[in-house]
Structures
1.
Amino acid sequence: MAASPRLWTTLTEPLIRQNPITLQILGICSALAVTTALDTALTMAASLTVVLVLSAGIISMIRKMIPGTIRLIVQITIVASLVIVIDQILQAYFFDISRRLSVFVSLITTNCLVLGRTESFARNNPPLASMVDALGNGLGYSLILVVIGALREVLGRGKLFGFEVLPTVDQGGWFTPFNLMLLAPSAFFMLGGLVWAVRSALPEQAEPIEHTPPEVEEPSR
Amino acid sequence: MIKGLWDRETVALMWLVAVFPLAIVWIHHGGLDAVGRLIFFLAVAGFWHVIFMLVRAQPPSWAGVVTALALAILAQQELGLVPLLIGTSFGVVIAELVFGGWGRNVLNPATVTLAFLGFGFPSAPWPDIIVPVGWAAIPVALIGILAGVMSLRIVAGAVLVLGIAWMMGLDMSETYPALLVGLVLLVCDPVASASTALGRWLNGILFGGLAAMFLAYWSEAAAVQIVVSAALLASLVAPILDEIAIALWLARRRRRLG
């Protein structure tokens, strides 16, 4: 099949090289909010990926029938319907996690990542390519969420998926839980550090310098 | 400040000389424990300075020694090595070295480390600053002001506001050592504080006002915690104070010269 190498790049590009969070800084509101524990991060990542793939597929299928002037309304309607379905499923089968995720599942509707992919890719490409692209972006988002969620849970509570990894001081161990990791600022720090690490490894992602410092003569001694 | 003798490292060294009285009194009263703490913070800060020298060719600075001293005196006790290591690395790297080293930073690395540890480990007890260490801050301020690395205006502004608060009946009998030490080690950082005449007055007044307000209304906080919070907020606002001072100066100049 001639198209498969292209599909493969569409799938793998958004994992690191075109990662929606670390390169495009999209969808970070939810990335910051739900990553205090790994299970919520995983649930959120899975929900978003499912919504993203399905909405990309549906919008791509009817892309030639959507009038350009009301396309945002149509796209948001489709995304919102899918989000409601996902939300109901989570409430039915994973009530505890869904309560901890609170409004953030519903807020997938307004996630920049979903609308960004449908608006920029699914609107102009056939269904298969759109869904592969959406899957790639969803996985890229999931990757970052899982990394940050795992780090925050281990450092903040000494646990992973609720199981103890580092024995905490209260339980007679040696690890002092790092409360800051459960607050929003730490997610900013981690995301910043992650972006820094990725851009050091892939320097082509770094933005051009906005201004150059003036050259000064060092005094000779 | 790049002409003649005065380069970045002269400022850092003069600052270091100025804080010597404080360091000596503190080590004299703290004994071997104090020396151990100081060596630990010196090692961590020094490690990151060397890493950034090797990777980014940023010359290490003597200011790191002052940071380490401030941390050794003010950091929370009973924390264990790992939290202190994380906190110090965060403060030194994120608040100072990523900006290009001392002189280009916005906030004092010690202030950032202390605030980070304070938020991260709210239950760890803050150290008590004993009275002789508090008094030792006065020669520090004198030497710093005479050497030109600390600002008389910042010190005067802070002392003025705290003095007024004291006369209005605010009880500072147990907290004044921490206030004095924080003032000379965190607030008077020549880089992170305001640098215009009016801005410096405002900076000192703001620190004094915040500290007085926290003392009056934040009942469960330790003295050092109050000082660190006030210093963090004051140095975050310092660039705006400079902007205000410059805008006022420009407006006055425009009115006079047309």
2.
Amino acid sequence: MAFELRGISVRHAVAAHADVPYALYDISLSLAQGEQVALIGPSGAGKTTLLHTLACARQAMSGEFTAFSVSPWSMRHEQRHTLRARLFLAPQTPPLPPRQRVVTAVLAGRLPQWGFWQAIASLIRPREAGAAHAALARFNLQDKLYARVDRLSGGERQRCGMARLLLSSADAFLVDEPLSALDPTLATQMLAVLKQEAQTRNATLVCSLHQVELALANFPRIIALREGRIVFDLPSAQVSAEMIAALYQNEHTALPEAAEKAPYCMGTPC
Amino acid sequence: MSAAQPTSKYPDPAWHGRVMLAVVALLLLWPMLQASEFQPWILFDKQSLSSTWQFLSGFVPPAHSPEFLAMLLEATWQTVAIATSGLVLALLAAIPLTLLATASLSVSRLESGRMRNIAVLVRQSARWLLVVLRSVPELVWALLFVRIVGLGPTAGVLAIALTYSGMLGKVYAEILESSDTHATEALLRNGSGRLAALFYGALPEASAELVSYTTYRWECAIRGSVIMGFVGAGGIGQRMDESMKMLAGAEVSSMLIIFVLLVAAADQVSTFMRKRLA
Amino acid sequence: MDSRELTPPPAMTPATVLVLLGLLVLVIASFTTLDLKWGELFTADALRSSSEFLGGFAPPEMATPYLIKVAQATWETFSMSALGTLIALVLGLALALPGSGRFGVTARAVIRLKLNVLRSIPELVWAVILLIAAGLGPFAGTLALAAHTTGVLGRLFADALENLPREHEETLRINGATPMTAFFYAALPQILPQLLSYTLYRWENNIRAAAILGVVGAGGLGQMLKYHLSLFHMQQAATVILAMLVMIMLVDGASFWMRRKLNGV
């Protein structure tokens, strides 16, 4: 098993939601190694919090959590950090320093494998420009290898963040809304690359998506969240139009968007 | 992914620039190291270490006899007084120069949209005077005045007055010009004089920034007046110079403590004033 | 239009009046307690002797061998300022890391205190102290500039790092990067322009400081100036002052150009 969650509850990162104390409540699920899963649900359902919990970026209030059959929060700090190199969390808007060059931003995916001096040397002369080029080429971005990040469009930046994922050595990809800045053609291409890479490495792929049709068409398993709880967790063939309609019913009366964009911090509760 | 393609296939366009930059930097660095006699190892040779140790070991405990402390207190007050008097004189000189140098306070510009030639000339000479006044470091002014008026605080006050009138004049003019000129212009158009336009139009707009900059300069003047003591312009600097010449570590250490406290206090006072008056 | 309509006179709170009164007392006390010898400046006798003194500056000494000596001292001064600033840039950044609370609250407090002490002692006082360890000459001056500037830059850098949003670094750390590599890949590129811009400002300041450090024996133009003034070689002193002015203006220009390049591109 790549991930096991038993009765996991996670608090909101910001205390503003006193009326709804939990971002996730009593979540139980298991994800096999190499499995590909889509997370769907209205804004504020807890998709981002779940991804952060899987990435060991947020600690659960209660419940049991194991990743790769170990329990990260009972390990020492350093061991947990080693574990993090096996998990790659791609945030929705990749925070890339504006003046950095694309090649450096992409090669940052290699940081867990590099020693300190290798990392510094790569800032002066990119160490594996070829690998960065290959990763960018899969998103048709190879021309931007030496461009500066602030010269990229929003969609190009998002793909640049995914090229970083391709360079990581992770065994699990935890991807938050990878399609938000992409047009339909690029969105399809993005999903194809992610799925192909996950399959080649036998990595687990968990991807939160707003586009339900794309989720149903591309992922064998769908987990639906609403108000911090699992509404259903089914093979995509068994998901009906009524279930989707019910999931998104009165979406705008649900939790405010802010809940998903809450800042996160490591280890310590915010 | 470990079988990465060779980097050389995708040459980094910035690489040659970086190499060139590094070469140029090294070529410059070497003569600079020579010129500044950069030899860190002399810090660690026996003689240097022992004299440093001898001097520093005198630091504890700092000198604290009542007579010495009284002398120190007087010298500290003298330092503050030199800075304050110098800054007041600088203000008195800077205000007329600012009025001359500020373009938005010009009456002649209103009529033709351009300033008269003579006005331009006066304004330019005022600006050049400000440039010369502030470009000569205050210590150099102090060195000169010590030769004219002799050792003592007068030279320090004059040096601060001259340097700071140049700095204050320049920055005041910039602040007044960058603040919204609308009110000033309206006043000038309606026949107000330059001073009225300044007091009712430009000043209220910019007063916060002017006060803030002036208090900041007062803080700088305190540091400056300490330094000028070393060329004989009075205050704690002059006392420190004397103690250093006698290698009296204990006295120097009390002075350094007073010094850090004085700068911290000036910092606090100026922050407080900025809040109060701005 | 009545001008008073434009700006009603600002209301003064009692506290403001007190502050202003305090200021007035400070100013009056300053002038009265100082033993200011205006007499020696404004009597006819004094005016004549000081105009003679100032007249002695013209014309500045322009003989080629002397100009070469001045040029050498100028280069020495320039080197002191550039090296001092460079050392301060490196040390300031190194101290800013703990100073911004990256290695805990205790380290932050200790480093901040250290930076404050470095900062509050001016270059010239550092130079006087360092002369004992480094001996007379430009090396002591360079170290003095580095010491003071490290304090100034270290604090500015630490503040800049503290104000930086943490999410860039957190993203890399969540994915397994160490704190130091995350700093170099996420935090540093964000603050680098600001950092270089501060450094250039300090360099402009340091060229002025380097010019005068020689007065206490720490090398450069200041040392020449003091020597010639003490022997009343006015024309030679005038050349030195001119060299200082030219050098300061050139460095200001270079720094302005570099800062514009930095922000423009």
